[in-house]
Amino acid sequence: MTNQILNERYQIEQELGRQTGRRTYLAEDLQSQERVVVKLLLLGPDFDWQDLKLFEREAETLKTLEHPAIPRYLDYFEVDTADNKGFGLVQSYVAGKSLESHLISGRTFSESEVKELAIALLEILRYLHQLKSPVIHRDIKPSNILLTDRSGNSVGQVYLVDFGSVQNLAATEGSTITVVGTYGYMPPEQFGGRCTPASDLYSLGATLIYLVTGLHPTELPQKDLQIQFRQSCNLSEEFADWLEWMSEPSLSQRFKSAKIAITALKKPRPRKQAKLASRDQNPQPVESEIVLRKNHRYLELSLPKQGFSIRHIATISFATPFALGTALMNFMGSGVAIANFLQFAAIVTIILTILSGFYQRLYIHIYFYKKQLVLTHDLLGIKWHIIRSLKNASHLKLATSGAIKYGRKPWLVIVTSAVSYDFSSYANLTLEEMEWLAQELHKYLGLPLHKVED
Question: I need a surface site. Which of 43, 147, 207, 229 has the fewest CB within 10 A?
């Protein structure tokens, strides 16, 4: 098809890839004189309507994405020539080689370069997974990651391409999921049609294992479905541990988000200790940021605060017009004094809301003694304590998964004869973290634990 013009606009220069019923070409856009990538889905004897569904989904997804490391959607058209009939998708062209091509040509990557690539790719996944309707790529592998040549101290610019297997997570609820992906880079749950953001993390982990070993995961031995790569490369213990977490076959033991994976890469912890902890009947969730310390005198919890929330933003948005004086004209009939008072109150409200948001980004420390708990707050070096009595504590109450299926957050409280102390007001914790904390407090305080559906 060289030199053929598609849709009266795109002149084919060369073929980039070929699969059954699919073609990928490098072309020139005769209108913009820019190079573009044209992907064709051809109607033929091997045509499957499921392929058209995936092709259209790729186009619709690309339309919604705006990220410098993801090709831009440019056009979509029908192909109707004497030789071919089908559909075409046009994307911006990235002048880079795939990771697979780099390794085949002899390029090697140091551990620091692999970490740099890992963070860059995790940031792309973080963007995709945090969209209002999370997007799961489902086919991350060395041939779908492009990398430009080294420049200065940089390993090169990295790009994630080929969204032909993409899945909108919101669309999976109550529907049948097509099993797509590449053997060796697909996590076990994806074979069963299940897909979560953590599924992309597994594929990325397997891709990075290919970079450090030069071998595809299918060429490496496995033990209990875990890829055994350590004997085929020379890595630090910490980074090897991190790669094992990324490629953990058990979804419950794998990192659950790109954000958690980035944090774990920058602040590593030994996997051997985590394995020992997992033998406990109540292991801490691997992605949890809670810090727990115990001794014979007290149990200490350090809980990450929630930070700025919708409530903070709404309060500031409502108060700003009053603080600027633009909403005070309606009150002038009641006197200037009232208008001035409202403006002063709005300014104070904004200041307190901002301080509250910054404060809630910090950790809160809770000390549990046998007969009391102490909340320790620290804001800009100023510390204060709030003491609560546990003398009349009767039991712990935990919301189960049935309680949160209607969109409510999980909660955990200590019930006393006078009041209940609610942990959900201190931090934004997951149900798994609540369940783990409930068991820890149950053992330490000796209080009965009641699970309820609220």
Answer: 43
Between CA 11 and CA 28 the distance in angstroms is: 5
What is the per-residue pLDDT across 112-169, written as a single tens digit (0 to 9) for each?
999 999 999 999 999 999 998 899 999 999 999 999 888 777 889 999 999 888 876 5
- What is the identity of the amino acid at 267? K
H helices within 329-384, ranges in order? 336-359
Closest CA to 301 of 353, 374, 393, 360: 374
Taking Cα atoms as reference points, which of 374, 372, 368 lies closest to residue 386? Answer: 374
Tell me which residue of 216, 257, 211, 217 sits closest to 234, measured CA to CA: 211
pLDDT digits (tens, 9 = 90+) for 281-317: 567 776 677 778 888 788 888 876 555 555 657 777 7
Catalytic residue numbers? 139
Distances in whole angstroms, Cα of residue 432 to Cα of each of 129, 247, 261, 284, 401: 20, 21, 18, 8, 9
Q: Is 111 exposed, middle or buried (0-12, 13-18, 19+ CB in 10 A)?
A: middle
- Cα end-to-end span (Å), the chain: 64
Residue 300 contacts residue 367 (beta carbons within 8 Å):
yes
For the record, the structure tokens of 46 come out as 């091997």
Q: Which of 187, 210, 103, 74 is nearest to 137 (CA)?
A: 187
Two tokens, residue 252: 């419950």
Average pLDDT, the chain: 82
Give residues with Cβ within 8 angstroms of 370, minimum separation 6. 390, 445
Residue (of 256, 244, 238, 94) closest to 160 by Cα position:
94
- Give the per-residue pLDDT at 276: 42
Cα separation, 444 vs 54, in Å, equals 53
